[in-house]
Design a protein that fits this description.
Blueprint lengths: L2 H19 L12 E19 L9 E4 L2 E4 L9 E2 L2 E9 L5 E14 L2 E2 L4 H4 E3 L5 E9 L4 E2 L2 E16 L1 H4 L27 H8 L11 H15 L8 E3 L5 E4 L17 H14 L4 E11 L8 E13 L3 E5 L1 H6 L23 E4 L17 E3 L3 E2 L4 E14 L4 E3 L8
Antiparallel strand pairs: 1-11, 1-20, 1-21, 2-3, 4-10, 4-19, 5-9, 5-18, 6-7, 6-11, 8-9, 12-13, 14-15, 14-17, 15-16
Helix pairs in contact: 4-5, 4-6, 5-6
Length: 418
């Protein structure tokens, strides 16, 4: 994206916030089915770091300490990354049902072994036309042809809301003759999400008595999600992978085409989310996983402060209404006795949604190679890596800047963002 296009995009977004804060809805305006409430403004610092740790191979001779023999680790000074440079693609979402992202005051840094490469933010920020997706594309040169540490840091501002869904009104939605342009990709198969798998398709289609087309798309999606969540055999919580010093490193996810907890006997929260989305897609309803970062309190350890983890919020689309959120892990803990009529916590009414920073609709940016783990970001370039010592880290901080000026507003109906 050119600098002029970038400035026009971000200026429009900033003006939309100002306009939204300058007035209230007319009394004649119908009540929104999906309503944003209780806005909160935050500064976000997002980091990706590639760095060196002690070798895991233990190539040096054994040593004895207090009668215990152990392998001494290799402390090689050979650079970890060898190349002329690397291109890193880091996804961000400009707008979701609960979050708007503002880059008018964004900053960007890229350091190689502590030396700032002075990146140009207007060239880094790349919007995808007709979508809420954007990419921070950092082209980082290695001046010496090698590097031991690469640190990418971007700061920007978000405004996030709680989301309230009028479930009765959503339940009156009807099946469209055709889904709106831009939603078709969220009905197809993609790595880790396959709506054609028999175990998923059978369960989703059979979740509604009388057939899923006998009810509204809202109820068909709800029944499918609750049926899959109820049938999930394992609630394994080991989704976020951590590395050196507890740093967040990636997602415990395998895009192997199985139905995981439905036919493989177990699955992580991200695999449950992917299976639920596949089930909704099997009905022909657009659905997606929104991959997020969130801060998690370390209440169960002796550590102070917070740690960072992934969160997987799912959505499905209703014409003229927009994207409806659900969180399968919360649903799993709060299933109601009658899923076709009773409200289920986690479906449409998702608690703590404000705490989630949305980044991507896929585990890897299109056209980028996976690093050492699925971690939303990816890299390009012929990089030779000393794999036994290379480590990646995702850093994230969320600093509150107070409340927004408009207490409530309708959620966006489409992904077309300012």
């Amino acid at each position: 994206m050119r600098a002029s296009s970038f400035l026009a995009t971000t200026l429009t977004l900033a003006l939309s916030w100002t306009a939204a804060g300058s007035g209230s809805q007319s009394a004649a305006t119908p009540r929104a089915v999906v309503l944003r409430t209780n806005p909160r403004i935050s500064d976000v610092r997002l980091e990706v770091e590639l760095f060196q740790q002690a070798s895991t191979l233990g190539r040096n001779p054994t040593v004895t300490v207090n009668g215990t023999t152990s392998q001494r680790v290799d402390v090689s000074t050979t650079p970890v990354y060898t190349a002329s440079g690397v291109t890193l693609g880091i996804p961000v979402l400009v707008r979701t049902s609960w979050c708007d992202t503002d880059f008018t005051k964004a900053t960007a840094r890229a350091l190689v072994d502590g030396v700032d490469t002075n990146p140009d933010l207007s060239k880094i920020f790349v919007r995808s036309a007709g979508s809420a997706e954007a990419l921070l594309k950092y082209e980082v040169p290695f001046s010496r042809g090698v590097a031991n540490n690469v640190l990418i840091r971007t700061t920007y501002q978000t405004q996030r809301w709680e989301v309230q869904v009028d479930e009765r009104a959503a339940g009156t939605s009807t099946w469209p003759r055709a889904w709106p342009s831009g939603t078709e990709r969220f009905v197809k198969a993609e790595p880790g999400i396959n709506p054609a798998l028999p175990a998923i398709k059978t369960m989703a289609e059979g979740a509604t008595r009388g057939g899923f087309r006998s009810v509204s798309p809202y109820l068909a999606a709800k029944n499918a999600v609750l049926a899959i969540t109820k049938a999930w055999r394992s609630g394994n919580t080991a989704t976020s992978i951590y590395g050196q010093k507890g740093a967040l490193r990636g997602i415990n996810f395998t895009a192997d085409g199985t139905a995981w907890g439905l036919e493989a006997g177990g699955g992580t929260p991200v695999e449950l989310a992917a299976t639920c989305v596949a089930g909704v897609r099997a009905l022909g309803i657009p659905s997606r996983v929104v991959y997020c970062l969130t801060e998690r309190s370390r209440r169960k350890s002796n550590d102070k402060g917070t740690s960072v983890e992934f969160r997987f919020v799912c959505e499905f689309f209703l014409p003229d209404i927009g994207w409806i959120p659900f969180d399968p892990m919360i649903i799993r803990e709060n299933l109601a006795s009658n899923p076709t009529t009773d409200a289920v916590k986690g479906f449409a009414q998702v608690p703590d949604l404000q705490d989630a920073i949305p980044l991507a609709y896929r585990t890897l940016p299109e056209g980028y190679a996976q690093a050492d783990r699925y971690a939303l970001w990816g890299w390009n370039g012929s990089v030779i890596v000393e794999a036994d010592r290379a480590v990646t880290r995702i850093g994230f901080e969320d600093s509150s800047r107070g409340n927004g000026t408009t207490p409530q507003m309708p959620a966006p109906v489409s992904d077309e963002a300012p």
